[in-house]
Amino acid sequence: MGEQTKYLLDESRIPKHWYNIQADLPKPLAPVLHPGTMKPVGPDDLAPLFPMALIMQEVTTEREIEIPEPVREIYRLWRPSPLYRAHRLEKALGTPAKIFYKYEGVSPAGSHKPNTAVAQAFYNREAGIRRLSTETGAGQWGSSLAFAGALFGIDVTVFQVRVSYDQKPYRRALMESYGARCLPSPSTETEYGRSVLAKRPDHPGSLGIAISEAVEIAAKNDDTKYALGSVLNHVLLHQTVVGLEAIEQMQMANAYPDVIVGCTGGGSNFAGITFPFIGLGLRGGSKPRIVAVEPAACPSLTRGKFAYDFGDTGHMTPLAKMHTLGSTFTPPGFHAGGLRYHGMAPLVSHLKDLNLIEATAYHQTECFAAGIQFARTEGILPAPEANHAVKGAIEEALRCKREGRSETILFNLCGHGHFDMAAYMAYSAGTLTDQSYSEQELAMALAGLPSVPEPA
Ligand SMILES: *Cc1c(COP(=O)(O)O)cnc(C)c1O
Predict the structure, then answer these.
(1) Which atom of ligand 1 is found nearest the CA of 137?
(2) Which one of 58, 198, 230, 319 is most buried, by most CB atoms within 10 A?
């Protein structure tokens, strides 16, 4: 076929700035509220949890934020990540569409998450912090922060959702290899964990509970801060290296996306690939369609409410306006652990509310089928989360085939599936089922949303 398959940038092309979409929003984000006073939080309210540099990145409207040289130095281990043209997948689908994907599985932890873990560890280290606490579901974020902590000499404590801690020992082994301490959540180390265990000693845990435990540890210890792997503005900001590189690589390929697809758990890898392109559109450039793909079993963007809610189950975090299923909602146990969160990043939610992005939901078995087709044509076995993006891209390519359109599709292949082989074994054995959440439980969780006075 003679056409190029892989687009690589030189190390010197690692972006020198992250892109802050808050500079270009047609309407500003709703403020984050203090849960006690219901007034907008100030930087000092967040100071027990985050270093000031990251707090300022939450609120700044400056368009370009410089990437510190020590962070770029570590990015060099795997960045710039490759962009591929999926010729073989296109052929298998018989589509006239061109499919491109940016591959973030080349990082040491195997996903996009080190893009922000390294930055967060750097700013905490600069502020003299020696310990970080965090939560993890399946373990991708925990292993990314453990990696970053090891490189900056920071002790990392990870509260891992108990079902994953018990069922997926390899991610825990990776975290411990990097020197982190990993505890099953709910744990006996925190007041909140003990209160959950008192009511239900065999509680399987949830991300919302693990966040409460990690926040409690940071709030109570002066030398400890908290790190979050998704959702917050500064996390999405750090992920924009993905899209900024992709813009250059699409130029190398002489192409521009008509559609960009990403999977959404908390929204960070989706924001990473799409925000720089959305920004070009908001500043007068062409506007590709932007499609978020979420699991049908945890459908915050497609079925949730755009309302103020807590980020955690223990209600220790501030209130943010976002698409939410309710902070007490426990999603069923499907395999894309990174997508099992009740809320969505406020920035992604805001763009959805402004109709600047679209959202769609698929069940896990159809996503695994897409991932297997991708592996058999392109050779890379995607993470279960990334399978949702693959499915979304394939659906767009099949639409192009039906409509006879040769559109250009770009998606974020946010991680590989090498730690998720149990899920693939279940899929091949035919024991993987499509879980539905309980409508009744969803209604109850949404009825329990905090009531917030309308701003004047
Ligand atoms: C954590 C994770 C996700 C979900 O988080 P986002 O913030 O939505 O990106 C998706 N894919 C992979 C591979 C992950 O590790």
Answers:
(1) 1
(2) 230
